[in-house]
Amino acid sequence: MRTRAEIECWLTDMDGVLVHENTPVPGAAELLAQWRAEGTPFLVLTNNSIFTPRDLSARLRASGLVVPESSIWTSALATADFLKSQMPGGSAFVIGEAGLTTALHEAGFIMTETAPDYVVVGETRNYSFEAITKAIRFIRGGSRFIATNPDATGPSTEGVLPATGAIAALITKATGREPYIVGKPNPMMFRSALNRIGAHSENTGMIGDRMDTDIVAGIEAGLHTVLVMTGISDESEIERYPFRPDEILGSVAELVRDEPIESDLADGEDGLAEGL
């Protein structure tokens, strides 16, 4: 069994691990500073496909966390990476926001409403009956069905909102076709993240707050898994599952070593620290 000392690269979830409702989790800024100071390769992972890495980097910066956009890996990027490997230069009909359409454009895909190779469903706050109807007809006509992530609901200040998984289920009911889901808990997302930073599963750790996505996918991808208790999981939740993480910590603060880490917030790293 690997120890934490053997870990040279890190993948970490974002919501519930580094931030909670736009407030930094204690220790998150220090851990990110530690990784940057030591040149530790890392990626912040999120199933959210609404925002581009640039958007997310700015949102994290506004919360007081410096994460370069190059260190953010979304389900939209993982989906685009997967589709590019499957059908370079293909076409897609997309239900989603800029994070998804931008990733697909940059992967060389054409957005179309004429016999698309793929129907790709991601997160959006503007689900349209017309767009869902088109997606159903395209899939029934032979388009391949892809979803960025399986999350059925998402949070808002007013309560839960229907998310990608719920809309994908509606389309499945109408077509009889299940989507291929790229995001967590599919270890495909972790493997593409590892490729992004040139890491190997043998020396990479995954930090998450959910047993059913972060931890199970980390285990299946062969990573050292760390569950933090600052998000969704609690002791009773952990006991529900037949698998266990390698470590259970109160928060990412426990991953920060005692020796002081000189913060580079003032350096304007990648132009992201300005305005903090």
Automatic annotation (TrEMBL):
Keyword Magnesium attributed: yes
Keyword Metal-binding: yes
InterPro entries reported in the protein's UniProt record: HAD-like_sf, HAD-SF_hydro_IIA, HAD_sf
One Pfam family of this chain: Hydrolase_like
Residues binding substrate, per UniProt: K184
GO molecular function, one term: metal ion binding
Active site, UniProt feature: D13, D15
Protein name: HAD family hydrolase
Source species of the chain: Microbacterium testaceum
